[in-house]
């Protein structure tokens, strides 16, 4: 059984329940969680993060609404479907290239915020358009 450990950043400006939702989605995309895996109980998350149990339940309800997990009364909350792609796996060539790029960015003196801003800028300006399911976009037009 795979286990996800939530990390809550109270200074991020992102609602706590959304941080949980985002972390579950990320784990699903990276293949860290798979269909049938059980998410930690609200009680376990509260013990590890010191957040309100209703916050955990709100996050799990959102994930259920999206069809990613399902609550089984008396048993827990289980992953229903994966978002993983082989290209994003831990052993993929793209991930290795990105890790190498991150090493170069760190060596050049960039910190986490610099890298985040740079990646967001490139995503926003040249690569993807969320309105079209993540298809490659034509720069500056919002069209594919």
Furnish the topology, listing elements before pairings.
Elements: H1 16-29, H2 42-49, H3 53-65, E1 69-72, E2 76-79, H4 93-107, H5 112-127, E3 128-129, E4 135-136
Antiparallel strand pairs: 1-2, 3-4
Helix pairs in contact: 1-3, 2-3
Write up what this structure looks like:
- With 144 residues, the protein is mainly alpha-helical.
- It is 46% helix and 8% strand.
- The chain has five helices and four strands, in the order H-H-H-E-E-H-H-E-E.
- The strands form two sheets. It has a two-stranded antiparallel ribbon. A two-stranded antiparallel ribbon has the order 3-4.
- The model is unreliable at 131-144 (pLDDT under 50).
Oligomer: single chain
Q: Segments where pLDDT lies below 50 for 5+ residues?
A: 131-144
Encode the helix/strand succession as letters: HHHEEHHEE
Which outline best applies?
Answer: globular
How would you describe this structure in keywords?
single chain; 144 residues; mainly alpha; two-stranded antiparallel sheet; 5 helices; 8% strand; globular; disordered C terminus
